[in-house]
Design goal:
Elements: E1 2-11, E2 14-24, E3 27-32, H1 39-46, E4 54-59, E5 62-63, H2 64-67, H3 69-72, E6 75-78, H4 90-100, H5 105-118, H6 134-146, E7 152-156, H7 164-177, E8 182-186, H8 190-196, E9 199-204, E10 207-213
Parallel strand pairs: 3-8, 3-9, 6-7, 7-8
Antiparallel strand pairs: 1-2, 1-4, 4-5, 9-10
């Protein structure tokens, strides 16, 4: 279980997150809110990419600052902008990121093949990234996020650039993954949230204004 406790973030004298507290278990959490509400800040803090100003995050009861790299090994994070090596093939790109994530060689080959199939890029595995469309790059990013089989997966606008068929494929993928993983999904496409999320998290002006199980039952 992942628990955010009274998370605050300040830039100078301006506080952009005002004491966010949320408990996450296995399932899909739809993170929604207006632009500038603090969604990306929360995701970056959860991913240990950005330091919080105060508060703490517990993973299975232990402060993530104590866990350090052991926590980051549990995280898969897809930000809005991912940098790629344009002359790498899709397969080599995923292998490279898997290697950086510490996936051993025995598992890496099978993991790479599996995520390529999951995002419908297996037939393009030997094509260079520079030949990919925006939607294909987005699918490649999803594959990279999942290659190390993380326990917590955080997606920031993952369906941008995907056509309806690929959006449906992505929804099916995260439904399958959510049986054993915590998935946080931020998107402006509310229909995506409504179709797949188990919980809705609404952030406005850096405040948690709703945390609700789909169907109206509050998640206490």
């Amino acid at each position: 279980m992942l628990e955010l406790i009274d998370i605050k973030k300040r830039y100078g004298s301006k506080e952009v997150l005002h004491g966010i507290s949320i408990k996450f278990e296995n399932g899909i959490y739809g993170l929604i809110g207006p632009n500038g509400s603090g969604k990306s800040t929360i995701m970056n803090i959860m991913s240990d990419v950005l330091d919080m100003s105060s508060g703490k995050i517990l993973y299975n009861g232990t402060d993530i600052k104590e866990l350090d790299d052991r926590y980051r090994e549990k995280i898969g994070f897809l930000p809005q902008n991912v940098g790629y090596y344009p002359n790498f093939t899709a397969k080599k790109t995923i292998e490279y990121f898997g290697y950086l994530r510490g996936v051993n060689k025995k598992e890496l080959d099978s993991n790479v093949e599996q995520v390529l199939r999951d995002v419908n890029l297996y037939e393009n595995r030997n094509d260079k990234v520079k030949s990919f469309s925006g939607g294909m790059k987005q699918r490649l990013g999803i594959a990279i996020t999942c290659v190390a089989n993380p326990e917590i997966i955080i997606f920031d606008e993952p369906t941008v650039g995907l056509d309806p068929e690929e959006r449906a494929r992505f929804k099916n993928l995260i439904r399958k993954l959510s049986k054993t993983k915590t998935i946080v999904l931020s998107t402006h496409i509310l229909s995506d949230v409504e179709e797949v999320a188990d919980y809705i998290i609404l952030i406005k002006e850096g405040c948690l204004t709703k945390f609700e199980k789909i169907g109206g039952k509050d998640n206490e």
